[in-house]
Amino acid sequence: MSFTPATADQIFALKINAGIAELAESPRFADATDDVVEAIAQGIGAFAAGHFAPLSQSGDRVGACFADGVVTLPPGYVEAYLAYVKAGWNAVAAPAEFGGQGLPSALAACVMENLGSANLAFGLMPVLTVGAIDALHHHGSAEQQTMYLAKLVSGEWAGTMNLTEPQAGSDVGALRTVATMIGEGENAGKYMIRGTKIFITWGEHNLTRNIIHLVLARVPGAPEGSRGISLFIVPKFHVLADGSLGTRNDVKSVSIEHKLGLHASPTCVMSYGDEGACIGELIGAPNEGLKAMFTMMNSARINVGNQGLQVAQAALGMAAHYARERVQSARAGAADCRPVPIVEHPDVRRMLLRMRALTEGARALLYYTAGMVDRGVLGIEGAAARADVLVPLVKAWNTDIGCEVASLGVQIHGGMGYIEETGAARHYRDARITPIYEGTNGIQAADLVTRKLGYAGGGVVIALFEEIAADAGDAPTLAALARDCAGIARWMAQDASLDDKLAGSVPFCTMSAVAVAGWQLLRQSRAAAAEGGTIAATKPVVARYFLEHIVPEAAGLKPAAMAGAALLYALDAEALAG
């Protein structure tokens, strides 16, 4: 089936959850007028359907190919990417002074959503470039910004994040890549980089003339752990003073991974300095790479949360189409015994409505988070802190529901869902990495109950739930969940040990995300009548399902969130493994 973008619901979420009209009242985002918002949402939907979606199935089957350090994408990918760059989609939220349009990040989220729903593997590439743009814009020198940002903003060059190493995994502080300052010659003041990075998404490819790698490394004498890491710019090709490309840098991909899904997205093992000639530039001061890393990671985590939404939307669209077309069995209890489309059967309806409620809840949460990020940029009091709290929720819960919705999509297809030709299995395979990379969902939950709960002694987190409870008067299940979340947050902030907080972090993170998503769907439901059209009829039903089914499930996690860690350590490691 062809890809159909969820344009109407995206525009509605931009209006209600991101509050795009309010953002447009500021001088910075004044160009985000109603007509511009609608033009971007409609335009990117059409572009994704015409250029990215037709390549999704062939990209999965053919995959990225590796030979002698060169990664080649499947047929059609180069042309589609050039069309993407030519249309200016990479520049929507990028800084205007470097060729971007300077629009709210909420609109960029809409762009990314459509690209990834059409082709999740292909949509990953712009995500990495956005992270590089954010890091350089916030932490790079004026000279570095002038040299690199315009080409990254246009999409003419691509960017990557190089964090993970074989021995380190998620423990970034354990990295061993070394950066040694060059003392003389034409590269004096720059650094010689040597090391290996793994799991580098789009680390090598044939879509752009240059790739700008942002690499975490350690300078000699740096403190142990994460306090001693620095961030470096390592271009695939050296960039000359006039902006043209020079010789090839000593950086290469030595292999790509064979993965469960995302076959058209090359995941590379990168080697730096095999010939002793890999040259990089320091971003910021030595040992301050953690600051720039978190800028990249926050951007990436929001965008990975978007990927959970993307795969959910794609799976929902495919399952709904199949359920309308597939005729099988009479409806139970019907006088007419003729077979009907399976969409008429109650359990298929249950699965489809659950898929839709989860998907639209994820969209509401994502766009609310993006709107808070934009308000933080404007300096609105409390917005940046709230956005920080929302980041682990949107990354963890959206990717969890992406997996659930993709699984339900396979279930609706029945036996045909287990057959690769239908495409339902591809969504399931593609989705599974999203709860793992850019910080596993367990790491997101740990971040919520330690770092984010530490804001104002728990005050920022608790204030969010108190606001939800106060606004949910016509949704008693939601109000009760929000009060439970506030109570758990107080217990964790004041009384729980660190082990107890971490033991309950994942159920608490899920409860928190469902509370915020349910709140944002409730806001949509209240505004649906004024919106008119299909949304006026469908949104109250979708929101009601979420509030009456998803919210009570989340409320049932309270005992697990407060159970403590004792039971988890009742068995030793050998006994635990059976």
How far from one another are the termini? 45 Å
> Are there runs of 5+ residues with pLDDT below 50, and where?
none
Q: What is the CATH C level class of the largest domain, in words?
A: Mainly Alpha
Radius of gyration computed on alpha carbons: 24 Å
Shape: globular
Q: What average pLDDT do the residues reach? A: 96
Instruction: Please work out how many helical segments DSSP would assign.
Output: 20
Given helix and strand content, the structural type is: alpha+beta
Number of domains: 3
Helix content: 40-55%
CATH superfamily of the largest domain: Acyl-CoA dehydrogenase/oxidase, N-terminal domain
CATH architecture of the largest domain: Orthogonal Bundle
CATH topology of the largest domain: Butyryl-Coa Dehydrogenase, subunit A, domain 1
What can be said about the biggest beta sheet? 8 strands, mixed
Strand content: 5-15%
Overall number of strands = 12
Summarize the structure.
The protein is an alpha+beta fold and about 575 residues long.
Can you tell me about this structure?
The chain is an alpha+beta fold. It folds into 3 domains: 7-65 and 72-154, Butyryl-Coa Dehydrogenase, subunit A, domain 1 (Orthogonal Bundle); 158-287, Butyryl-CoA Dehydrogenase, subunit A, domain 2 (Beta Barrel); 440-578, no CATH class. The protein has helices at 7-16, 20-24, 34-52, 56-62, 77-87, 105-118, 120-139, 142-154, 289-325, 346-377, 383-413, 424-431, 441-452, 459-471, 476-494, 498-503, 505-531, 533-555, 558-561, 573-576; strands at residues 65-67, 70-72, 158-162, 178-181, 191-201, 211-217, 230-235, 237-239, 245-248, 251-256, 267-272, 279-283. Strands 3, 4, 5, 6, 7, 10, 11 and 12 form an 8-stranded mixed sheet that branches. Strands 1-2 form a two-stranded antiparallel sheet. The chain starts with 6 loop residues before the first helix and ends with a helix. The model has no long low-confidence stretch (mean pLDDT 96).
